[in-house]
């Protein structure tokens, strides 16, 4: 499974409130499953973070998926096939999920418009 930025934003909110919510429930239900995160999501989430050690700790347990040359080509070709303009970061995330055959864990509805992309809401 590949986790979108929205998941981590919601996780952060649940942790700050100290009250388990949908994210905590999802994680409990999917213990033992491989969990991945794109470097795009890491970059989006890092905006405004001053403690990089805490950031690395927050993402512990999620295998990072760096962007490579083939991912860039795939994302560009994906945008050319879409009937709508997708935000650049979301396009990268969708392209990575599709190219690697991963299900995307997200609550962001824009991804449901990408043909062939498997979505798992939480």
The total tally of domains equals 1
The level of helicity is 40-55%
Main sheet? 5 strands, parallel
The CATH superfamily turns out to be 5'-nuclease
- The CATH architecture can be named as 3-Layer(aba) Sandwich
Output the radius of gyration: 14 Å
The first-to-last residue Cα distance is: 12 Å
Overall strand count: 5
The number of distinct helices, counting runs of at least 4 residues, comes to 6
Strand order of the largest sheet: 3-2-1-4-5
Q: What is the name of the CATH class?
A: Alpha Beta
The poorly predicted ranges are none
Structural notes for this entry:
This protein has 122 residues and is of the alpha/beta class. 50% of the residues lie in helices and 10% in strands. It has helices at residues 5-17, 22-29, 39-46, 52-58, 69-81, 88-99; strands spanning 2-3, 36-38, 63-65, 104-105, 119-120. A five-stranded parallel beta sheet has the order 3-2-1-4-5. Helix 5 packs across helix 6 (88-99). The longest helix has 13 residues, at 5-17. The chain is globular, with a radius of gyration of 14 Å.
């Amino acid at each position: 499974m590949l986790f979108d930025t929205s998941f981590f934003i919601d996780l952060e909110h649940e942790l700050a409130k100290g009250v388990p919510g949908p994210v905590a429930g999802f994680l409990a239900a999917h213990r033992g499953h491989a969990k991945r995160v794109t470097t795009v999501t890491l970059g989006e989430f890092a905006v405004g973070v001053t403690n990089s050690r805490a950031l690395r700790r927050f993402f512990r347990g999620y295998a990072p998926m760096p962007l490579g040359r083939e991912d860039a080509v795939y994302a560009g070709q994906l945008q050319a096939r879409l009937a709508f303009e997708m935000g650049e970061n979301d396009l990268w995330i969708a392209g990575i999920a599709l190219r690697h055959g991963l299900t995307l864990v997200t609550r962001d509805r824009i991804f449901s418009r990408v043909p062939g992309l498997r979505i798992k809401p939480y």
